[in-house]
Amino acid sequence: MADEANRSAFMEIQGRMIDLTAKLKQVQNQMRNKEGEKKRAYLTLEELRQLSDDTNAYKSIGRTFVLEPKSFLVNEQEQKLKDSEASLASLQTSKEYLEKQLAEVENNLRELLQQDPGLARQIMSMAVM
């Protein structure tokens, strides 16, 4: 009876670990994408700042290009930069939370396996097959 309870507890912990790992990878991918957006906005902003203030430049909208004043484009890139930084801060918080949750689940799994060495042997024999 206790063996079956430990087995079901292991399955539950394993499912939670898989779920948390997937969420963590998703957050890391989102962070990587936001880093790219931030870098593009920064580089575009640096190039725009080299132009004189009365210059008009083309902005890409899909496959169309629209002529815009430099000040409008600079403001737009600065806003993209701020938004990316805010998103990165939020994603970093989520990442830290998920890492703590994952560490907690790993500790729960470790405690369960130390509590029932027979379960650990069963799992190892299933993994070998």
Automatic annotation (TrEMBL):
Q: Which InterPro entries match?
A: PFD_beta-like (IPR002777), Prefoldin (IPR009053)
What keywords sit in the KW lines? Chaperone, Coiled coil
Q: Which domain of life is it from?
A: Eukaryota
MF annotations from Gene Ontology: protein folding chaperone; unfolded protein binding
**Record has Chaperone as a keyword:** yes
Q: Does the keyword Transit peptide apply?
A: no
An annotated GO cellular component of this protein is: prefoldin complex
| Chain segments annotated as coiled-coil in the UniProt record | 17-115
**Gene Ontology BP, a term:** response to cold
Family according to the record: Belongs to the prefoldin subunit beta family.
Q: What is this protein called?
A: Prefoldin beta-like
Species lineage, top-down? Eukaryota, Viridiplantae, Streptophyta, Embryophyta, Tracheophyta
